Amino acid sequence: MIAIGSDHGGIKLKETVINYLKEKGLEYKDFGTYTTDSCDYPVFGKAVANSVASKESEKGIVICTTGIGISITANKVKGVRCALCSDSLSAKMTRLHNDANVLAMGAGIVGDNLALEIVDTFLNTEFSGEERHQRRIDLIED
Q1: Catalytic: 64?
Q2: Could you read off the pLDDT of 109-140 as tens digits, one per residue?
């Protein structure tokens, strides 16, 4: 299952991503927000991160206007490795090398087409499993 959440600045892009997940037949859980009313991104970033950290969800996607605040929030949860990506190469490399389990994007930074390419790359790239990368992940987790 994919956990997904956004604040008011990311809700339109979140809806676009949810439609993509539906089209691909991927199971997801929407942690909000559900309106464009001003709200606090840490609430939604933490909810997604907790779902991933608890293994309820395999991966997560968090979105705010820049992606910065919500990625910082997600990374505060032990066991989460959230990567802010604005291009598909970064999405690929963070999965290959960092085994990132949460993707952050900025709705004001990436458009719909690029965002869906980033999501597709993130969800379909496996961790390389190379010893040097696992060693580095272990150091991060410590």
Answers
A1: yes
A2: 999 999 999 999 999 999 999 999 999 999 99
Please state the pTM of the whole predicted model.
0.97
Joined together, the tokens standing for residue 56 give 């309820």
Is 39 one of the catalytic residues? Answer: no
Q: How far is CA 128 from CA 55, 100, 133, in A?
A: 20, 11, 8
Residue 27, token pair as written in the block: 């199971």
CATH fold for the domain made of 2-141:
Ribose 5-phosphate Isomerase B; Chain: A, (3.40.1400)
- Give the C-alpha distances (Å, rounded to integers) separating 47 from 54, 73, 81, 93: 11, 10, 14, 25
* Annotated domain spans of the chain: 2-141
Q: Which of 8, 39, 97, 133 is catalytic?
A: 97
